[in-house]
Amino acid sequence: MRTTACVAMLTAALCAGCMHDDVVRYKPGNVIGPYTPAVQAGRMLFVSGQIALDPQTGSLVSGDIEKETRQVLSNLRTVLAAAGYDSTHVVNATVYLKSMGDYQRVNAVYATFFPEGKYPARVAVEVSALPKQANIEIAVVAFK
To answer: What is the pTM of this model?
Structure first.
């Protein structure tokens, strides 16, 4: 709870007086609910949670957790890039796992997304279910 309060206070301080702009919009087929993939507020970019949807087919990539994690990170990279950001700008990540038993295998893939030693703050939690029966979802906040 304390971390959440700190992030909220920091966000409020950094964004005081700034307007938000929808910076990334996809065709309706690429979004599975009433949300925007990313919203920019000042210098911060809030990226909605991404699951392992193949952008070409709209189908969930499955097979193993490593494969799903790679697709999730690829989807995040695409959203970040569309707004002019990249993984070096990510300051916070929230990882939702269907099974905490996948934690180590997810970490192995997740670590490759960021420059070594420059990992963002992160929360990882186990959840009972995710959209489309996904095993992982990741949301990030970027700043530049």
So the answer is: 0.83
**What backbone phi and psi angles, to 5 degrees, belong to 113?**
-75, -25
Residue 4 lies in a domain: no
pLDDT of 33 strictly over 80: no
**What Cα–Cα distance (Å) separates residue 86 from each residue in 1, 9, 68, 144?**
28, 24, 20, 10
> Is the CB of residue 138 less than 8 Å from the CB of residue 92?
no
Domain coverage including residue 103: 19-143
Has residue 2 been placed in a domain?
no
Please state the domain count of the chain. 1
At a CB cut-off of 8 Å and minimum separation 6, what does 69 contact?
A: 52, 105, 106, 109, 110, 136
State how far the Cα of 88 lies from the Cα of 20, in Å rounded to an integer. Answer: 22
pLDDT in tens, 54-100: 988 889 998 899 999 999 999 999 999 989 999 999 999 999 999 99
